[in-house]
Design a protein that fits this description.
Blueprint lengths: L4 E3 L2 E3 L3 E4 L6 H11 L3 E5 L24 E5 L6 H14 L5 E4 L12 H13 L3 E6 L3 H10 L3 E4 L13 H10 L5 E3 L5 H10 L3 E4 L1 H4 L4 H21 L22
Parallel strand pairs: 3-4, 3-10, 4-5, 6-7, 7-8, 9-10
Antiparallel strand pairs: 1-2
C-alpha cells in the first residue's frame, strides 16, 4: 500500500515521529528509535548536544542525519524571540537545515502552548525560510491561523506534555483535521499504543511522542508497540469503520434457514 506521509515536499514511510529525550543514554535512544521505525526524530536544541558542545557526546554520532531526518525543536522556550533564536542556531549547526518544530510554552507546570507567542514566532520563521511544524493548542481557529501563516504542519496536543492521558478532546481534534490542508499530527499526551491508534483512526496524519516510549518499563518493546499502533490506526482509518448503530444489533451470521423457520 502506497500511503506515505508528505511534509514540506518530502515523503516518509513512517507516520510515527519520536523524540530523543529522557532515555538513560544515547545507546538506548538509538535502539528505541530503530524499533519504532521512525524516520523523523525531534531534538531539543537547548538540551541536547548536536555539536554546540564539542567536549560532550554528540547525538549525531548515534542518529546520523544521512539516515534520519532531524527535527530541531524549541523545547524550553517561553518567548517568540527565544524560539526564533534557537532555531536559527539549529540551522547553523545543521548546515542550513530548515525543517523545524516550533513550540513556545506558556508556563513550566502545564507546558501548555503560549499561542500568541507561537503565532508571532511562526510568522517570523516562515518569512525567514523555515519549514515550520508547530505545537499548538487544540483550538481550530488558531490551528487555521498557523496554516494560513504558512506552517507546513500543525501539531495539536492530545493532552499535556508527558501526562500520558491520551486524547482528551477528540471533537476539537476532529475539527482541526477536517479543516486542514496541511498535515495534522498529534503531539503530546500519548501514553500507550491504543492512544496512538485512536489518533490515527480519527484521521491524523501522524503522531509525535517521546515520554510514552522513553519512560516505559521497556522502551524498546514500547517503541515496537507504538509503531504497530500507528500502522493499525492508519489502516483502520483508510478502511472506513462500520457505522455506529445505537440500539440496533445486526447479527454476523445469516438468520434464514434456521431450524423451525
Amino acid at each position: 500500500m502506497n500511503d506515505s506521509l508528505v511534509i514540506a515536499g518530502k515523503t516518509y514511510g513512517s507516520r510515527l515521529l519520536v523524540g530523543t529525550g529522557k532515555y538513560k543514554d544515547f545507546d538506548e535512544t538509538r535502539a528505541a528509535i530503530e524499533a519504532s521505525g521512525a524516520e523523523i526524530v525531534t531534538v531539543a536544541i537547548r538540551r541536547t548536544n548536536i555539536g554546540q558542545n564539542p567536549d560532550e557526546p554528540n547525538l549525531l554520532d548515534f542518529l546520523p542525519p544521512e539516515r534520519f531526518t532531524l527535527l530541531p525543536n524549541t523545547a524550553g522556550c517561553y518567548t517568540a524571540d527565544d524560539a526564533v533564536r534557537t532555531l536559527r542556531l539549529a540551522r547553523e549547526l545543521l548546515d542550513g537545515h530548515t525543517l523545524v518544530k516550533l513550540e513556545v510554552l506558556g508556563d513550566p507546570d502545564t507546558l501548555f502552548p503560549n499561542m500568541p507567542e507561537t503565532l508571532k514566532a511562526a510568522e517570523t520563521l516562515v518569512k525567514d525560510g523555515f519549514d515550520v511544524m508547530v505545537y499548538c493548542s487544540d483550538d481550530p481557529i488558531q490551528a487555521k491561523m498557523l496554516e494560513e501563516i504558512g506552517c507546513v504542519a500543525v501539531m495539536p496536543l492530545a493532552s499535556l506534555i508527558g501526562s500520558g492521558m491520551g486524547i482528551l478532546n477528540p471533537w476539537n481534534l476532529q475539527l482541526i483535521i477536517d479543516q486542514s490542508a496541511v498535515p495534522v499530527l498529534v503531539d503530546a499526551g500519548v501514553g500507550t499504543a491504543s492512544d496512538a491508534a485512536i489518533a490515527m483512526e480519527l484521521g491524523c496524519d501522524g503522531v509525535l511522542m517521546n515520554t510514552a516510549i522513553a519512560k516505559a518499563q521497556d522502551p524498546i518493546l514500547m517503541a515496537r508497540a507504538m509503531r504497530k499502533g500507528v500502522e493499525a490506526g492508519r489502516e483502520a482509518f483508510l478502511a472506513g469503520r462500520m457505522p455506529r448503530k445505537t440500539y440496533a444489533a445486526s447479527p454476523s451470521s445469516p438468520t434464514t434457514g434456521l431450524i423451525g423457520r
